[in-house]
Specification:
CATH superfamily of the largest domain: Glycogen Phosphorylase B
Strand content: 15-25%
CATH class of the largest domain: Alpha Beta
Structural class: alpha/beta
Number of strands: 13
Number of helices: 18
Strand order of the largest sheet: 3-2-1-4-5-6-7
Radius of gyration: 22 Å
Shape: globular
């Protein structure tokens, strides 16, 4: 088997690791790759799920080397984690005869650059987005402060170096690929960029695997009586426009007064309800459900439509919302905003929902005007779009092709 070192600054006990790392590694393991996985785990989810994830990875023959994520102080904590990633990774390279290093995002990419130089091992720069620009757009780095101005400039310089030196590059979107190519990082030949969106396990996100009994039990436990049901899936944080989503629902209620807004999220329930109350949304119209990955398909089946608005900043050219693949896999129409990666292109191509321009003051009214047609979108049509664009099997095959191309260069 080909030994691969996989570096992730995201944790495997986080939802992102479970949806966007482990399924790919499982698929690639079946194709003859043996993974040594280094990840950085946050304390609370790690203590909660370390046995569950550890057993899962062992059952897939994936060697897991979890390290503790360091949160503070800013900048120095990241440097410390990078040092530990390099130290652990170098030991695994020496011990196991690693043939390829797969680097998920920028911090891991810095380690990949180091290993390429020290051990002459090819590395894959799996970008996942414009990370440095995301930190600025998300107001995590204030470039008006000297320290963050220096850090941002450093990572933009390293971004170009990683793109230039990587043996393979993964972009989540065609939009980002076009943007990167406009930077002209290489003057003589094109960058080896492959577009692989955030795919979904369409065996897991499949209506056929959710029983009517499970849906009815969930409806009863959540006390959902209204119709239609709009769902929101995932974290409520920096990028997700909670105010605007609730504002849309407040307008939606004028046409559909018995509607319910179901938030499928593990966080900030009290904040969601408090913000809804400020908009005079009835308390019984808002439901918040904390769901693990295994519970999400049934929760989505409760809904008639799924909604997400994401801040359309520069860095979001490179974003591929995982939730889009999962929602489409369940055959649910979606309402989203334009300016996020390839999202609106996919919506229009597969006729699976509606993408609105949030800068248009009439956008909400236009969306509600088209709602009756949207709610009648055939689930089979949406699922076919998911299968065509977001299939995990197709994503795994693309990764395998990239791996093979990189290994041929050695």
């Amino acid at each position: 088997m080909t030994e691969v070192l996989y570096l992730s600054y995201d944790g495997m006990t986080d939802p992102l690791g479970q949806s966007q790392v482990i399924p790919y590694l499982e698929g690639l393991t079946k194709k003859g790759y043996h993974f040594h996985l280094i990840s950085f785990e946050k304390e609370i989810p790690y203590e909660r799920d370390k046995e569950l994830i550890g057993n899962l990875l062992r059952s897939k023959n994936i060697e897991w080397h979890p390290l503790t994520y360091t949160k503070r102080p800013p900048v120095l904590s990241t440097l410390w984690d990078l040092y530990r990633m390099k130290s652990k990774g170098a030991g695994l390279i020496r011990k196991h005869g690693i043939s390829l290093v797969h680097c998920r995002s920028y911090i891991s990419g810095l380690a990949g650059l180091d290993f390429q130089q020290r051990f002459n091992i090819p590395f894959l720069f799996d970008m996942r987005g414009f990370w440095a620009d995301e930190r600025v757009d998300g107001k995590l780095w204030d470039v008006n402060k000297p320290i963050y101005k220096i850090v941002y400039a450093y990572f933009k310089k390293k971004e170009r170096e990683m793109l230039f030196k990587a043996d393979g590059v993964i972009s989540l979107t065609e939009n980002a690929k076009a943007e990167i190519e406009s930077w002209k990082v290489r003057s003589t030949k094109k960058l080896p960029i492959t577009v692989i969106p955030c795919c979904a396990d369409l065996n897991h996100f499949n209506p056929a695997n959710v029983t009517k009994e499970a849906i009815d039990n969930l409806r009863t436990s959540l006390n959902i009586n209204g119709h239609p049901v709009i769902s929101y899936l995932g974290a409520i944080g920096t990028w997700y426009m909670l105010d605007e989503m609730l504002a849309f629902f407040a307008v939606f209620l004028k046409t559909y007064p018995h509607a319910t807004f179901l938030f499928i999220t593990r966080e900030r329930a009290a904040e969601i309800i408090a913000m809804a109350q400020k908009l005079d949304i009835p308390e019984n119209a808002i439901k918040v459900m904390s769901a693990g990955r295994s519970e999400v398909p049934a929760a989505l089946m409760l809904s008639d439509l799924s909604l997400f608005f994401i801040r359309p900043t520069y860095s979001k050219k490179a974003s591929s919302p995982t939730k889009q693949a999962e929602i489409m896999g369940m055959g649910k129409p979606l309402l989203c905003n334009t300016g996020i990666g390839d999202t609106d292109t996919i919506v229009n191509k597969y006729h699976c929902g509606m993408a609105i321009d949030l800068s248009d003051p009439n956008a909400f009214d236009a969306a509600i005007k088209g709602m009756e047609t949207l709610l009648k979108t055939p689930p089979e049509q949406i699922m076919a779009g998911a299968s065509s664009y977001f299939s995990l099997d197709a994503g795994v095959s693309k990764y395998e092709s990239v791996y093979q191309s990189m290994l041929k260069k050695v």
